[in-house]
Design a protein that fits this description.
Elements (H helix, E strand, L loop, with lengths): L1 H4 L3 E4 L4 E4 H4 L10 H8 L5 H11 L4 H16 L4 E4 L4 E4 L4 E3 L2 E3 L5 E5 L2 E2 L12 E4 L8 E4 L8 E7 L8 E10 L4 E4 L6 E6 L4 E10 L4 E6 L2 E2 L4 E10 L2 E10 L9 E7 L9 E10 L6 E3 L6 E3 L3 E9 L6 E6 L2 E4 L3 E3 L2 E9 L7 E8 L7 E10 L5 E5 L2 E2 L4 E8 L7 E6 L2 E3 L3 E6 L5 E10 L6 E10 L4 E11 L7 E3 L6 E3 L3 E9 L6 E6 L2 E3 L2 E4 L3 E9 L8 E7 L7 E6 L1 E3 L5 E6 L8 E11 L4 E6 L2 E3 L2 E7 L5 E10 L8 E8 L4 E8 L4 E5 L6 E5 L4 E4 L2 E4 L4 E6 L2 E2 L14 E4 L2 E4 L8 E9 L2 E20 L3 E3 L5 E10 L6 E4 L5 H4 E6 L2 E6 L8 E7 L7 E9 ...
């Protein structure tokens, strides 16, 4: 009905809104709010008739309702009309504050709401969509005030309070505008921060732009200069709306600053009604106006003021004004003297303080002021007047004169202001008629000069002249004195110290003295040698002077004239005296000439020796290798310095072997017993000659590296090597130009293969060239490579009873029949097979092959170069089919409606055919969807056919027949198809492996019931009934059970299960015993009750160990001190030669270690210390060293691990030095290590027995050429001998009976006899080889046995040679030098000559030694065969020894005899 009451379309002229009937009933339409107003309009009186007509139409028969509506409409009209009690009014509010728009209605009848810019806000007190708006008041009182919280610019609008019509009351409305004001957001002078300084030049235009942003309404801008509003400059203001209802005001002020604006502040201030008056918004800048400074002025001196020299003056220059402040600079006579100034505000000041000098007189001082604004500097000047006296006077003129001479003299003053006067005093008398002249000085002031002439009178030795300079105004006087000496000549000189004809040997000292008396001044004495001045020592007395020279006579003094001259100022020609010396001198040099200079084989050369000058003439001799040779054409001629030059030559035919031969020429002056010599080494040029290599063939392994090294001798030694193969050169570098690596390259005489290939084999030619020619050498490279099976015969198929032949083709190097073999497990190869080999192929023949011969035969190729290779060859002998009857192949299972699979597997040769039957009827396979067959080949002999039944029905269950046939026969097997069920028990259970805590099992599965089966193992200890269970992995038939007890018996069983159930367990018949531990677990179990006791015991043991160590260290130092004191008092105590090696803890030796050992070395020579120094730890470590060769016998241990009793306790832990390998060379000592040479020369070293391994691994392996852990020995040069050392031969095993030819060889060793031994010190790091001489008794045959055990002796035919060293009276050996001079070793022993092959033993040669040996000295003897002992060294303390008579060894009481081995070591 209400919809019909409303018009179709209605416009509201007040709000410009419209609504229709349609949107009135829309609950979401805002226009529904206008419904009261429309009703009012509908029921207005002028439309009453229309309304009644409508109502009559709608309510025809309802008269009561019509009467009621009429009563409701008429009642308001008859009452008082609604009106505004408080009409809304315009309101202004600050942004962020609260605005209250008031509206109060009297006689309210209609609904009240507020609108904003025509948008109705609604009748609710809480206005939706406007959280900051709310209507406050009282509906009963008609109060409807609109409150707006936190007003913003968006709230700036026109609001209307509307009261709707009701009960014949018309609608009323009232408007009010809300203005929201906002203060400016910022103020700035564009381009400048607040309170910043703006620099501008004077009278330069400046624009200041002030911006006040985001204000509402627009802000006003006020400019201030200082604190006064500034209205003078040109100003432009502009307002812009930057955002909705926000405005930015810009003001530009144009000014032209001057000097008065300097330091002036310009302020821009915003004026806005939203800003509080006490907090103005401002932005300020300060102007810095650049302008020139004011003129400078000077203070501190008045023009015309007079200063004295030395007076201090302070000149102050100031300048005011200017921006920046003025720069002040002082100048003196145009030169800058000071530029340091200071400023205070706009005042600049430069103070120049100085002491007045003569140079300041009439000087002009100028001060200049300037800054960046000055076009030219401003100046202020003053001139200074300074008075000063002369600083000195100077007299010029001769200082020497003869009697009667006229001497002119001049006196001049230093500059003076005013000019100075000059006064003369000559010989004590004033000169009054002297003239003077005054001139201006360029330094300021005046210079006065006066000249006089003085006459020299007799009977005086000197004339004194005095000059005075006086400044009369300043009353200052300066004086100068000049002395003129009167000259007299000296007497002639006299020479003493040498008599004519006296002979002076060259090198002696000769003194000559020259004396001269009288003269004024005294004479000056000068020595000359052949007109060349010689320095001398001058001594002066009252009336004489002497000059002495000291001559170290040399060749130049022979016939040299020495002259002494005496002179002074009175002599025009010096007085002199001469003497001539006669000197004998030896030749200084010898020069050797070889003609021709370039020597080649097969030519004759002349070698000439020229001796330098000698007086008397020298005697020349030629030597070769210490042997004199005859010379020819001995001649002489006059030489330098009055001597004679001598020449001697000889001729020789040149051969190649003479290269590097040394010839020596000696020139001797027999009168002086002095000589010089010179040597020449022949340099014979010859082409290269290759040293024969060990082998012309080099063998390498494929894939490994190989280096072939050869060498050639030539002269010159600049040899160029080149390698070729098949005429093609081998690259000389390992890297090609492209960066790739060459696998084969030559490095000089070395041919390198980084990775051998079999194609590298062949002949390589090395050519060596030098300037004299070339030589070639062929090297054959053989490359060995592992075997590779290139081909085998394919599956060999034969009929039963036929012979089968299998082949295997192999490639390898080397390759022979022995490198290929055939094998087959569990097959007797020797019974039925034979093999043959031809052209790299091995053939295996199986005789009369049968069914049991079917299978793989393995061909194994191994030439021991690389890993063996093998391949299987299958032999097939034809046989009838054989069906696999395993449970898994005899049964199958499937669910109803599922696909069933029945496998049938058989072995056959040749390939069989499969036929499937059911109930004796062949199935139609692969013809319908029901049956399908899949066939596959498992291996060469095994075939499988699978019958597939689709959608298994109950009728499909049952037995099926699989018929397998080939040309040799057929067989039939029944296979059942059942419905799926639980699995069967596994068929068997086996134990694969047993450890101390685990057992590995494997089982043979049974029928799986047609489903995937899993397996569970149960086990228990045999002594217990409780089982433990463990499941295997899916599809696995193996299992390892861990965590078992050691040494225990376990029982095992297994079962199978699937989704339909499980099988029974196998009987517990399978058992296994775990292994026991090597270390019982009880030993590893900690007993808590004994824990504290163990800790206490360990602590006590550690404390005791520390106490023992401290006692040992204390004993060591005390013992060392006593020994040192004893060695100082006992000259016969044993001396020690020490050899050091690394400790057992490290194979390297540091300098500190050697130093510390060296300091304590004397303690190792104690005679009774061998027991204390035994190292048990080193005994136990002996067995840990590996010996690579079999030529070194192992230690002879007893059953308890100790050494045999024949070994003395002092050598159990001894070490064996490296044994050098010898070549067949003349002098073996040249190839020995330095320590071996010294020890053999001295004959004092005894090695340990060679069979015993060293305790720290320091030994020499005779087979592998290894040297381990031994440093070299360095001995002082005093130990070297001029006598050539003895050549030695290695000792070889012989029978004990051949050691001696009589008891006299060993004899009885009496008390005091010496035996060398060594020991090891306990507790400290010992030197591993300390040779000691101690007293030990060796008697009877046990001594012979001990010697044989230590070193078995080799008998060879040698001559006799001797060496001596000193022996003390009691038989102990003493070193010939103090132990303090011993040098410490420098590094590990590296003797390159030790690697040479030991192929031949050397025979000792007789070396003549003309050295007398006194009783008590030790002699090392090489006994000839005729003496009864073949080629062994003997040591004796006997003074007399006859090599032909060994009885001389026993001729002296107490003589001892011992043996040495091939290295000179006493055994």
């Amino acid at each position: 009905m209400l919809r019909r009451l409303l018009p179709e379309n209605c416009e509201d002229s007040k709000t410009d809104n419209s609504f229709t009937r349609g949107n009135v009933i829309d609950p979401k339409s805002k226009w529904r709010l206008w419904c009261p107003f429309q009703l009012y309009r509908m029921f207005s009186w002028h439309r009453y008739g229309r309304f009644c007509l409508l109502m009559n139409c709608r309510l025809k028969s309802n008269g009561c309702l019509q009467l009621l509506l009429l009563t409701i409409l008429i009642t308001p009209i008859l009452g008082q009309q609604q009106k505004f009690r408080v009409t809304p009014y315009d309101l202004q509010v600050l942004e962020g504050a609260e605005a209250m728009m008031r509206c109060e209605v009297s006689n309210q009848a209609g609904a009240v709401q507020w609108t904003k810019d025509g948008f109705a806000l609604g009748f609710s007190a809480v206005i939706p969509g406007f959280p900051r708006y709310s209507v406050l008041g009282d509906r009963k009182q008609g109060v409807y005030n609109l409150r707006i919280s936190n007003a913003s610019i968006t709230d700036d609008a026109e609001y209307q309070c509307q009261v709707g019509p009701a009960r014949l009351n018309s609608a009323i409305r009232a408007n009010a505008k809300l203005t929201v004001i906002s203060p400016p957001g910022s103020i700035e002078i564009q381009g400048y921060a607040h309170n910043s300084k703006v620099e501008v030049r004077e009278n330069q235009d400046l624009s200041l732009n002030c911006i006040v942003a985001n204000a509402k309404p627009p802000a006003q801008i006020i400019w201030y200069r200082g604190n006064v509003e500034y209205k003078e400059g040109h100003r432009v203001d502009k307002v812009e709306e930057t955002s909705s209802k926000r405005f930015t005001t810009k003001s530009t002020l144009d000014i032209k600053p001057n000097a008065d604006d300097d330091y002036t502040e310009y302020t821009c201030q915003a004026k806005h009604k939203a800003l509080p008056p006490d907090m103005p918004m401002r932005s300020t800048v300060q102007l810095s106006v650049l302008y020139p400074p004011g003129p400078p002025y000077i203070e501190g001196y008045t023009q015309g003021e007079i200063l004295r020299r030395g007076q201090t003056l302070e000149l102050v220059c100031r300048s005011r004004g200017g921006n920046p402040p003025a720069q002040l600079i002082w100048y003196k006579n145009g030169s800058q003297i000071r530029m340091a100034y200071r400023t205070a505000g706009r005042l600049s000041e430069n103070i120049y303080t100085f002491t007045a000098e003569a140079s300041d007189n009439n000087a002009r001082f100028r001060c200049e002021a300037s800054n960046v604004m000055s076009q030219t500097p401003l100046k202020a000047e003053i001139d200074i007047n300074v008075l000063f006296a002369p600083t000195h006077v100077s007299i010029t003129g001769s200082t020497e004169a003869r009697v009667g001479d006229l001497v002119p003299l001049a006196c001049s003053t230093a500059p003076s202001n005013p000019p100075a006067e000059i006064k003369w005093m000559v010989g004590g008398r004033q000169i009054r008629n002297a003239t003077s002249k005054t001139t201006a000085s360029p330094e300021g002031g005046w210079i006065t000069v006066s000249n006089i002439t003085a006459t020299i009178e007799p009977n005086k030795r000197s004339l004194v002249v005095i000059c005075h300079g006086l400044n009369m105004q300043l009353t200052e006087n300066v004086v100068s004195t000049h002395t003129v000496n009167i000259l007299y000549p000296p007497s002639p000189p006299i020479i003493s110290g040498y008599m004519a004809g006296q002979i002076i040997p060259a090198g002696s000292v000769q003194k000559l003295l020259c004396v001269s008396s009288g003269g004024n001044p005294l004479a000056t004495l000068t020595w000359f040698k052949n007109d060349k001045r010689v320095n001398s020592v001058i001594r002066t007395a009252d009336k004489s002077v002497s000059a002495e020279i000291t001559i170290l006579a040399n060749v130049t003094d022979n016939q040299a004239q020495y002259r002494c001259e005496a002179s002074n100022s009175a002599t025009e020609i010096p007085h002199f005296e001469t003497t001539t010396l006669s000197v004998h001198f030896a030749p200084e040099t010898v020069k050797i000439r070889v003609e021709p200079e370039e020597l080649k084989p097969d030519m004759e050369a002349t070698i000439i020796c020229d001796s330098s000058s000698s007086n008397p003439p020298a005697k020349l001799t030629w030597w070769k290798n210490g042997i004199p040779i005859e010379g020819i054409n001995n001649s002489s001629k006059p030489g330098l310095w009055g001597g004679t030059v001598s020449t001697l030559e000889f001729k020789v035919n040149i051969t190649q072997e003479m290269n590097d031969v040394v010839y020596t020429c000696q020139s001797a002056n027999e009168a002086l017993q002095r000589s010089v010599h010179e040597a020449v080494t022949l340099n014979i040029h010859y082409p290269p000659i290759f040293h024969p290599p060990p082998s012309s063939t080099a063998v390498g392994v494929e894939g490994e590296s190989l280096q072939v090294s050869i060498s050639a001798a030539a002269n010159p030694m600049s040899i160029v090597y080149s390698w070729t193969k098949d005429g093609l050169p081998v690259p000389s570098t390992s890297i090609s130009n492209g960066g790739a690596e060459h696998r084969i390259y030559a490095d000089g005489a070395n041919l390198n293969f980084t990775k051998l290939n079999r194609n590298d084999a062949g002949i390589y030619v090395c050519e060596a060239k030098n300037s004299e020619g070339s030589a070639k050498l062929n090297i054959t490279i053989v490359v060995e490579y592992g075997t590779t099976i290139k081909a085998v015969s394919e599956n060999v198929i034969v009929n039963p009873g036929e012979d089968a032949v299998l082949s295997c083709t192999v490639e390898g190097k080397p390759l022979t029949e022995e490198h290929i073999k055939w094998e087959r497990v569990a097959y007797d190869m020797s019974a039925k097979t034979t093999t043959s080999f031809m052209n790299g192929t091995s053939y295996l023949k199986i005789n009369s092959a049968q069914r049991e011969d079917v299978g793989n035969f393995r061909c194994v190729a191994d030439n021991r170069v690389a890993n063996p290779t093998n391949r299987d060859v299958l032999l097939i002998v034809k046989f009838a089919p054989e069906v696999d009857k395993s449970p898994t192949f005899l049964r199958a299972a499937s669910g109803t409606g599922e696909r069933g699979r029945l496998p049938c597997r058989a072995q056959s040769a040749p390939k069989p055919s499969f036929i499937w039957r059911q109930y004796g009827k062949e199935l139609q396979v692969n013809r319908t969807y029901k049956y399908e067959v899949e066939e596959k080949k498992i291996d060469s002999l095994t075939y499988e056919s699978t019958l597939i039944i689709e959608k298994v029905a109950p009728a499909d269950y049952g037995a099926y027949e699989c018929v397998v046939a080939n040309e040799l026969g057929k067989t039939t097997e029944t296979i059942r198809l059942d419905i799926t069920s639980q699995p069967d028990m596994p068929l068997s259970l086996n134990v694969l492996n047993v450890t101390h805590d685990s057992v590995s099992l494997a089982w043979t599965p049974g029928f799986d019931g047609g489903l995937k089966a899993s397996y569970r193992v149960r086990y228990r200890e045999a002594s217990r009934e409780q089982y433990k269970y463990i499941d295997s992995l899916p599809n696995s038939h193996k299992l390892t059970i861990t965590g078992l007890k050691a040494n225990s018996m376990y029982l095992f069983s297994v079962m199978a299960y699937n989704d339909l159930g499980k099988s029974k367990y196998l009987p517990d018949l399978q058992r296994a015993q775990t292994k026991g531990l090597e270390i019982l677990t009880e030993e590893l179990t900690e007993d808590p009750s004994t824990h504290n006791l163990v800790i206490l015991g360990i602590s006590m043991a550690a404390f005791g160990f520390l106490v023992v160590n401290a006692a040992l260290v204390a004993w060591f130092f005390v013992h060392n001190r006593r020994k040192k004191a004893g060695s100082d008092n006992q000259p016969g105590k044993t001396a020690t030669i020490e050899m050091y090696a690394p400790s057992s803890y490290n194979d390297t030796v540091t300098g500190e270690t050697l130093s510390s050992v060296s300091e304590k070395s004397e303690s190792y020579s104690n005679e009774g210390s061998q027991v204390e120094y035994t190292d048990e730890a080193r005994k136990k470590a002996v067995s840990t060293y590996l010996v690579e060769s079999t030529d070194m016998p192992p230690p002879r241990y007893q059953k308890d691990g100790t050494m045999p009793v024949v070994y003395p306790n002092n050598i159990v832990n001894a070490r064996t030095l490296p044994h050098p390998r010898h070549n067949n060379i003349t002098n073996i000592m040249e190839h020995r290590a330095h320590d071996d040479q010294i020890l053999i020369n001295k004959g004092v070293y005894i090695p340990s027995p060679s069979p015993a391994l060293p305790q720290d691994g320091s030994y020499y392996n005779m087979n592998s050429d290894r040297y381990l852990s031994y440093p070299p020995m360095d001995y002082p040069p005093q130990l070297d001998f001029t006598v050539p050392p003895l050549p030695m031969a290695h000792l070889q095993p012989i029978s004990q009976a051949s050691i001696i030819s009589g008891n006299s060889m060993i004899g009885s060793v009496g008390r005091g006899s010496g035996t060398l031994r060594r020991g090891i010190m306990r507790g400290v790091v010992p030197p591993p080889d300390v040779t000691q001489l101690t007293n030990t008794s060796m008697v009877g045959t046990s001594n012979i046995q001990m010697l044989h055990e230590l070193h078995q002796i080799n008998i060879s035919n040698n001559s006799c040679s001797t060496q001596t060293t000193s022996i003390t009276g009691n038989g102990s050996m003493m070193s010939t030098i103090p132990s303090s001079t011993s040098k410490q070793p420098h590094g590990i022993l590296k003797d390159p000559n030790r690697t040479k092959p030991q192929q031949q033993l050397l025979s000792a040669n007789l070396v003549g030694v003309g050295v007398p040996t006194a009783t008590g000295s030790l002699q090392i003897l090489n006994i000839p065969t005729s003496a009864g002992i073949s080629g062994n060294l003997l040591m004796t303390t006997s003074g007399a020894y006859d090599p032909a008579n060994l009885s001389t060894f026993n001729g002296t009481s107490g003589a001892t005899l011992a043996y040495t081995d091939a290295d000179g070591h006493l055994v």
